[in-house]
């Protein structure tokens, strides 16, 4: 069985072309996924940082507000003995006139 050199060169050529084509596709996908998208996301983050309002936060006011919110969540216990009863000092209502049949 004799293999022709021309046929072997054609097979080698087309195999090389196919592998090269697949390598180009793989490299393109790899670069898009790991390079282009990363650069795009970095530029988006950079643009968003430029749009932020640069105002200093008043930490003392922030802590005061946080403390007031905590007090609302857990109010102090009510001392019932110290509360004034509003019904003790009031006069009784006037008696209603009853109608006799």
Kindly summarize this structure in a few lines.
By secondary structure, the protein is mainly alpha-helical. The protein has helices spanning 5-51, 59-73. It has two helices and no strands.
Describe this structure in words.
The protein has 101 residues and is an all-alpha fold. The chain has a domain at 5-74. The protein is 61% helix and 0% strand. It is built from two helices and no strands.
Please give a handful of descriptors for the protein shown.
single chain, about 100 residues, mainly alpha
Low-confidence stretches: none
Helix-and-strand structural type? mainly alpha
Kindly state the mean pLDDT as a whole number?
84
Q: For the report, how would you describe the main beta sheet?
A: none
Residues in β-strands, percent: under 5%
Report helical residue fraction: 55-70%
The number of E-state strands comes to 0
Radius of gyration: 43 Å
Note the gap between the termini: 137 Å
Quaternary: single chain
- What's the SSE pattern? HH
Q: Can you count the helices? A: 2
- The general outline is rod-shaped
Topology:
Elements: H1 5-51, H2 59-73
């Amino acid at each position: 069985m004799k293999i022709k050199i021309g046929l072997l060169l054609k097979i080698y050529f087309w195999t090389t072309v196919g592998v090269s084509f697949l390598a180009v596709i793989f490299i393109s996908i790899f670069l898009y996924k790991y390079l282009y998208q990363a650069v795009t996301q970095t530029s988006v983050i950079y643009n968003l940082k430029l749009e932020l309002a640069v105002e200093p936060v008043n930490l003392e006011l922030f802590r005061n507000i946080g403390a007031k919110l905590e007090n609302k969540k857990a109010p102090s216990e009510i001392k019932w003995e110290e509360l004034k009863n509003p019904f003790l000092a009031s006069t009784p209502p006037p008696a209603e006139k009853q109608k006799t049949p």
